[in-house]
Amino acid sequence: MLPLSKRTEALGTENAFVVLAEVNRLLAEGKSIKSFCIGQPDFTPPDHARIAAIDSIVQGKTGYTPSAGIMPLREAVAVEFTKTRGVQVKADDVVIGCGAKPFIGNTIMSVCDYGEGHEVLYPNPGFPIYESMIKAAGAVPVPLELHEKNDFAFDLNDLERKITAKSRLLILCSPHNPTGGVLSKKMMAQIAKIVAKHDQLWVYSDEPYSKLVYDGPLATIEAEPGMLERTVIVDCCSKTYAMPGWRLGYAANRILAPHLTRWNTNIDSCPPAPSQYAALAALTASQQCVDEMRKSFHERRDIIVKLLNSIPGISCRTPGGAFYVWPNVTEACAMVGAKDSEELRRRLLHEAGVAVLADIHFGKRIEGEGQHLRFSYATGKADIIAGLERVADFIKKNAKSSPSKAAKRNGKATGKATKEARAS
After folding, report:
1. Which CATH architecture has domain 6-43+289-423?
2. Residue-wise pLDDT tens digits, 189-221
3. Which of 362, 372, 324 is nearest to 127 (CA)?
């Protein structure tokens, strides 16, 4: 057999796409599946963005663009970041990419040297590509454990302990995938004070859910004193404008912009031209569609949290943003005889027709934190209600042990919660 590199053999993946492929196979076989597995808004991109993409094609604007992206879009992103983050960003600080995801690896490779033991701190559980790209870049992954009791924030003392002379990058994600957790302004200020002690430490602020904060304004690390210069601000069109397949994201940092541009040149040449013109239209036109989508997700959040908490054996905190919930299913696993969340996930898919992701799809399970699943509520209200009814029925049918008193109380509330959800 022809050899593969160790780097390739060790490369991780994003299990949302793996499970989605399995869901699509089952759907093709005629199975009924309620899917909560993929983080993809079920909205149509804004009309003006779609028309702009079509116009760019009709007008022949389909060739190479500058590697950093077209200047009008870079200017629009600079205006957006300046207005929404409360910092001063210029067009020359901005780089356009093929989605937000490439900036993860390109930033790591820009600040870490292969084989030098340079460390990258990242949230666990977290977006799986963080750890995957840290390893692929030859850096050392240092997980920051997120705790349910802290609404899935990491411990500041843990952060301080884990920063060493080898630390080169701290990855933050708020609102957070997979938990929906949101870091407060107070927490950001405390993180900034710790980071400021280390001249060698960059910050990667992953903000694709920036417009999906429900209980207050967005707090960012770059807005804290002294943080803008060392922070890479990253956002995209995928979530805000329901354009995940358009592969259009943007990053801003004055120092790293030319280097991220060279990574673009080496890997992608440039972002797709029609997507850039669509993004320009999306950013500069009315944001009513964004407000309406956020309102809808807010309503869905409240419905899914209420329904999950009404199911015996499941408890779910109310997330502050994004479109994910991260319910604790430790007791549910015990009730139905599932050894862990992954077994429960598989059984829910094949026995109940409900597709979710397990905690192990987002990093190593944290000792003492129990078992969790991730539900994406980027699906319609009717499907949320029907899917959670299936989960409740599955647990009731398969329960081998009695739930706790709290779970019994929840069980009595299941029917009432479902009726209220349908009426809302």
Report:
1. Alpha-Beta Complex (3.90)
2. 999 999 999 999 999 999 999 999 999 999 999
3. 362
